[in-house]
Amino acid sequence: MKCTNCGKEVSDTANVCGYCGHRLKSTSLPVESRPVPPTPKLSADPSENSVSRKPRTPRGWIFLTVVFGIALIVLAALQILPRPHSTPPATRVQGPTAVNPNSAIDQQQSLSPEAPSSALEPPATPPTNDLPLVEPCDITSACGQTYHKGFDELAKDFIATGSRAAPGSNTYSITFARGQTVSLWLAVCATSADILKQNLQHLSYKLTIDGQPINMDKLYQWDEVDSDGTGCRRYLGNISNWTGNRHTVVTTLTIDAPINDGWIDRPAGDYADIYEVTLTP
């Protein structure tokens, strides 16, 4: 055949002219040679004519649907299950609580290490002289008829309490045998019984031996009025059974308000006599 462009003779099977390069034949298939898809047969039932096709569902929608379904199930379960009655936590109030003393002691003993027996015993006190025996002496009885020297007689340069114009203390050193009984005489006087009665409201005596208070009931007490009208409150006791070597006996007259005994004015305060006792065998 001839080239439709340059007129040269070319092969019948050539697709392109070898002289001018013109395309001689189309590379596409002829119409009659193209495959034609078969035409589906139509049925009288319209529902059968539709081609069954499965729609594609995105994976994201599937995941959301599953999550939403689980959430609905959980919410439904919470609504169906019974709810426990919630009670507010008890407020703890700091304050005293009743404690069984026995349980507290048991707990303390269980927690604390076992102490040695010596630690549980009270500390030993240093040895001291036993106090002597103090007994009241009624002057109307046989005791009053028996003479014993008194502290005022054994003391050198003794000054009677009634002779002092001001509070203070006097100290005396006395010595006697350990087996000796010594009388203790105390007195408060005024020029009349009425003045004495008024002054007694502001007067009081105290007795100590080696720092230990002795009840004044250990001394016999009586009131008397002398022939000249002088009124006195007197005390008398006998002290015996002395032990050791040294003792300190203190008598204190306390005046809590100024008084006048008819002789002089006496200021308030303590009027003390201190006897330092040394015992001999």
Task: Describe it.
The protein is of the alpha+beta class and 281 residues long. Among the domains are: 1-28, no CATH class; 133-280, Immunoglobulin-like, CATH 2.60.40. It has seven helices and eleven strands. A five-stranded mixed sheet has the order 2-11-8-4-5, with no helix packed on it. Strands 1, 3, 6 and 7 form a four-stranded antiparallel sheet that branches. 11% of the residues are buried. Mean pLDDT is 77; it is low at 27-33, 90-99 and 115-120.
| Average pLDDT for all residues | 77
The N- to C-terminal Cα distance equals 178 Å
Number of helices: 7
What is the CATH top level name of one domain?
Mainly Beta
The stretches of 5 or more residues where confidence is low (pLDDT under 50) are 27-33, 90-99, 115-120
Main sheet makeup: 5 strands, mixed
Order of helical and strand elements: HHHHEHHEEHEEEEEEEE
The helix content is 10-25%
User: CATH superfamily assignment of one domain?
Assistant: Immunoglobulins
Shape from CA axes? rod-shaped
What name does CATH use for the topology of one domain? Immunoglobulin-like
Strand order of the largest sheet: 2-11-8-4-5
Record field, number of beta strands: 11
What portion of the residues fall into strands of 2 or more residues?
A: 25-35%
CATH architecture of one domain: Sandwich
